[in-house]
Amino acid sequence: VPSPFPRDLLNVQTLTAARQLLGARLVRHDRSGRRAGRIVEVEAYIGQDDLACHARFGRTGRNSVMFGPPGVAYVYLVYGMYDCLNVVTEPIDQPAAVLIRAVEPIEGIPAMRQARSDRIAGATKTWDEARRRRETNRVSNLPATALASGPGLVCAAFAITRADDGRDLCAFESPLRLERAPEAELDVPISSGPRVGIAYAAEPWRSKPWRLWISGNPAVPRRGGVRHLAGAVSEPDRL
DNA sequence: GCAAAGATTTGCT
DNA sequence: GCAAATCTTTGCC
Q: Which of A7, A120, A149, A160 would give a disulfide with A71, using CB separation of 3.0 to 4.6 Å?
């Protein structure tokens, strides 16, 4: 029987919270029914000192949710196109969050495919039948493990938008929420490495191994065609 | 008020 | 392997 994700597990140092989130379930309830998946890849963004974190400029309109209580969704738009889901961590006034980078679909896979296809139509100003058909065909041929294997794809598959910014993910009745990992999955092997897409950040932040993933999970994207080897990466510090 | 860049993904070469 | 798509946010004038 599923249990809600305890807020206390997020009211801690962000790398500890990130580790707790690996294996947890991301759950969406809406008209399409129940969608659920296993969180398999995350990144930690930790406070104003972290020069890769959105909080590095202090509180702004976009990032204000990060300054609030843990267990709340921080959803922002990246590159003008893609929504990204974060889980706020640490106590109030300590701006930090965990970016959900990849989810392995478990329930509601047809709804995820539909949502992935719909995203093209939604993003296209002029409704283009041929373009939409191509996208539907492409998505229908993807393995389930590829449906949410990227931060923008997680939001597409689970129909998460900035309307979900500030939503409480620890409330069991929430239409978008977290559920605890089954006990049998609590001790899976974890790998870590540098965060993606933050080349603008100065050292040491650029190289901090604050990306965590479940070793060998098929839904974790293989960046650069290089296979993730557990022995080839360093341990995250401050865990 | 405006220029620049970004926690991405896709398709074409 | 690279560039396009696309728009919010920030920072500086």
A: A7
